[in-house]
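A.,

Following up on our hallway conversation. Structure tokens first:
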């Protein structure tokens, strides 16, 4: 019995190496396309992009090297429906399986059409069609309408800060589903719009069932958005989701993460001026050093030192 046990004994490094060998000998050199919804997206310090592709209750990790990511014509964000092309690779230390992605393409999904009866109701109230308000050139404070317990809040804040966003965020904690939700959300938008304290309002939540997202087809929310004097941006659900709130908003992003990325690119001018001033000071200092060096060399050559 002891001899049999010793024969079957393995160590973890050897086992992981075996797993890698078995998997990669079947897949390397045989790339394939596979599609799903992007979740758990993050960038490594080396600039590589990691995310999971989700299909129903099944998921697989993906990795896009920085050289490939930098050549993409669009930014990958949580909630996007994608197809990726690549081979299975195994990270030997942890025996983690992932797809090393070579190409990416968006999955064209047919969006749900907004009920025209609702738009007609808004038209009767003189709220639709409406001219979309432009985004402000400076954003110092963002009004964020979502639940403090939602994944959308964490996705938004994490992405906004990690991509260099510096504006303050004022959270208006609301219910995102259930009978009271439309009125609570509409009141939050109105309150932020009248406060004079925010430059833009973001209404966001993560993906869910159609019944959960139906809240955002409410006329109460649409009326609040159309009447708001502050630009309203929506980031509701996933790429394939489209609600009445999205239709009437000033700007629609496909996910909470995409909203954050969009806003992070709008920088207050005071962030730029100190950098320019610092650069000027460095330039003047460098010129001064060069002038002093030239004077010293001249004096040396003329035997004055």
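Then the amino acids I'd put at each of the 305 positions:
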């Amino acid at each position: 019995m002891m001899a049999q046990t010793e024969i079957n004994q393995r160590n973890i490094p050897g086992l992981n190496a075996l797993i890698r060998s078995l998997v990669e000998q079947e897949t390397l050199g045989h790339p394939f396309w596979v599609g799903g919804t992007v979740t758990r997206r993050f960038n490594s310090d080396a600039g590589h992009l990691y995310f999971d592709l989700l299909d129903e209750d099944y998921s697989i990790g993906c990795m896009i090297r920085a050289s490939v990511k930098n050549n993409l014509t669009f930014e990958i964000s949580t909630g996007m429906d994608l197809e990726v092309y690549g081979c299975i690779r195994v990270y030997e230390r942890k025996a983690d399986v992932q797809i090393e992605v070579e190409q990416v393409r968006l999955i064209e999904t047919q969006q749900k059409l907004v009920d025209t009866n609702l738009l007609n109701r808004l038209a009767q109230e003189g709220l639709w069609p409406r001219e979309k308000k432009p985004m402000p050139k400076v954003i110092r404070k963002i009004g964020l309408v979502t639940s403090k317990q939602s994944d959308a809040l964490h996705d938004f804040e994490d992405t906004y800060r990690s991509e260099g966003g510096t504006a303050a965020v004022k959270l208006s904690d609301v219910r995102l589903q259930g009978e009271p939700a439309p009125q609570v959300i509409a009141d939050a938008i109105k309150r932020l719009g009248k406060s004079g304290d925010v430059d833009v309002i973001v209404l966001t939540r993560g993906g869910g069932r159609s019944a959960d997202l139906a809240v955002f087809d409410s006329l109460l929310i649409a009326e609040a958005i159309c009447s708001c004097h502050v630009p309203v941006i929506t980031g509701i659900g996933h790429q394939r989701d489209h609600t009445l709130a999205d239709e009437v908003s000033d700007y629609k992003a496909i996910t909470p993460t995409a909203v954050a990325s969009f806003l992070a690119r709008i920088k207050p001018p005071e962030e730029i001026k100190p950098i320019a001033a610092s650069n000027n000071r460095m330039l003047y200092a460098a010129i001064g050093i060069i002038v002093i060096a030239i004077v010293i060399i001249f004096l040396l050559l003329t035997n004055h030192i």
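The first helix runs from residue 2 to 7. Curious whether your intuition agrees with the design.

B.
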